[in-house]
Amino acid sequence: MPLGLGKKRGQVSFEFLVLVGFILVFIAIIASVAFMIFSDSFTSQQTTDAVQILEKSVNHVYGLGAGNVVVISITLPGTVSDSFVGGLSGKELGFTATTLAGDQNYWIQTDSTVTGFLPTASGTFSIRVRADVNAVTLETVTG
Predict the structure, then answer these.
(1) Residue ranges of E strands in the chain
(2) The pLDDT value given to residue 102
(3) Residues of 99-109 as b/e, b for ≥16 C-beta within 10 angstroms?
(4) Distance between CA 32 and CA 77 in Å, rounded?
(5) What is the model's pTM?
(6) Which of 64, 107, 111, 105 is nearest to 91 (CA)?
(7) What is the per-residue pLDDT for 1?
(8) How far apart are the first and last CA of the chain?
(9) Residue 87 class from Cβ within 10 Å (0-12 exposed, 13-18 middle, 19+ buried)?
(10) pLDDT at 68 (0 to 100)
(11) Residue 53 pLDDT greater than 70, yes or no
């Protein structure tokens, strides 16, 4: 065996291992970024769905008139940090959630004045939507 041949094989093996290591690190970074984007998209969709369910229920009960009640179920992700009912016009409701882009407001305007409180914790909640004479009231029943 010529002198130095074993060193050449060892150098090629080491370079190959370093190359494989860099490729694995790159794949891990890409996978973690993709997971964060997917997770953010999923929680954003959950929050949007909750707001839309609330809006449809408020408008439905308002259309039926005073004294009507509907109990709905909404699921909130763990990124929800605040909720608001009424807003400046008295007809707004929604949530503030933390996303990759920072705090995002998910709100919608309803057909009637809205009062009450919405949960801010993660989980599934039953919300009582009740039409009163002057407004629609939201109350958390369970959660």
Answers:
(1) 69-76, 80-86, 92-99, 102-109, 114-116, 123-131, 136-142
(2) 87
(3) eeeeebebebe
(4) 20
(5) 0.78
(6) 111
(7) 47
(8) 76
(9) middle
(10) 94
(11) yes
